From TrEMBL:
It is a lipid-anchor. This is Phosphate-binding protein. The lineage of its organism: Bacteria, Bacillati, Bacillota, Bacilli, Bacillales. Transmembrane segments: none annotated. CDD domains: PBP2_phosphate_like_2. InterPro entries: PBP_domain, Phos-bd, Phosphate_ABC_transporter. NCBIfam families: ptsS_2. It holds the Pfam family PBP_like_2.
Length: 330
């Protein structure tokens, strides 16, 4: 699985090159059923959602070889910055859009559509040799990541008096924002912060007193190296990350994954329309392909129906304007 996570750097998937040369073995004309659709679609955002987009693009390119879909991964926050500037057609996010981001879009006159394309569970892990941490409450997590607990003994009096080494994604990641809101009550996270999630995995793997958190797909890919920690909710109920508990939301750190589309560009860009329709018709298979979790299938169907109605409505509006223009010419 490819994990590109470069802070402040534009990283574009290999499927951009496939789209540019027609896909399907490099044929210029392509043999996809949507080969008459041409254009360019630009996205940016979450490095958690990015691999889903890459997998979708591989499949999409076979049917729409003349549509180039590029997708950078500058983090959820970085992606929204470009979306607000108008330089992208869609933005990937591992958290809902914030109120200040909504305001900036409104000030720019940009309307948008929100689509949920998968589900994730922020997974907390410790070193494989840690034989005492099996579960933590959200309160204990907050104690660790606020810096209040310096040693494991500060978390639980029965645990060793060893200094905790906490690791976290940095502020460019939606995972950081989610953890700050859900665990820290929007407070600051005091930890060694990393732009590259793979570095967090490596740090937890190499340090016996380490603790780190990231998307479920990173845990699945590295589960032989790490030990998962079950999380108690506010009522003391123990929750464990799995495909089932993440999909039904019973895992306390479950979260939806999003694509936000620029409404005006969605009206005008046939390639963007087809890519979003393809994404929803995929019904989360690509999310599962990269180690994340699909939504219940009916969630995709309902969103696809709304997307089609939006496209049809604006298509009818364009046709009506064309007819009115012809009448005026006469």
């Amino acid at each position: 699985m490819k994990k590109w996570q470069l802070f402040g750097t534009t990283v574009v998937g290999a499927s951009l090159l496939l789209g540019a040369c027609g896909g399907n073995g490099g044929s210029d004309s392509g043999s996809g059923e949507g080969k008459d659709v041409k254009g360019e679609v630009k996205g940016d955002g979450s490095s958690t959602v990015g691999p889903i987009i890459e997998k979708l693009n591989e499949k999409f390119n076979k049917k729409f070889p003349n549509v180039t879909v590029s997708n950078a991964q500058s983090g959820t926050g970085g992606g929204f910055e470009k979306f607000i500037s108008g330089s992208t057609d869609f933005s990937n996010a591992s958290r809902p859009i914030k109120d200040d981001e909504k305001k900036k879009l409104k000030d720019k006159g940009i309307d948008y559509k929100e689509y949920k394309i998968g589900q994730d569970g922020v997974t907390v892990t410790v070193n494989k040799d840690n034989d005492f941490v099996k579960e933590l409450s959200k309160k204990q997590l907050k104690k660790i990541y606020s810096g209040e607990a310096k040693t494991w003994k500060d978390v639980n009096s029965k645990w060793p008096d060893k200094e905790i080494k906490p690791f976290s994604p940095n502020q460019s990641h939606g995972t950081y924002d989610f953890f700050s809101e859900e665990v820290m009550d929007k407070g600051d996270i005091k930890a060694d912060k990393n732009s590259d999630t793979n570095q967090i995995v490596s740090n937890v793997d190499k340090n016996k007193q380490a603790i780190g958190y990231f998307g479920y797909d990173y845990y699945k890919e590295n589960k032989d190296k790490l030990k998962v920690v079950n999380i108690k909710d506010e009522k003391g109920k123990l929750t464990k990350p799995s495909e089932k508990t993440i999909q039904n939301g019973s895992y306390v750190l479950s979260r939806p994954l999003f694509i936000y589309a620029n409404e005006k560009k969605l009206k005008d860009n046939k390639g963007l329309q087809e890519f979003l329709k393809f994404t929803l018709k995929d019904k989360g298979k690509s999310a599962e392909d990269v180690g994340l979790v699909a939504l219940p299938k009916d969630k995709y169907t309902k969103q696809l129906d709304k997307l089609n109605k939006f496209i049809d409505k604006n298509s009818d509006s364009k046709d009506s304007k064309k007819d009115d223009s012809k009448k005026e010419d006469k």
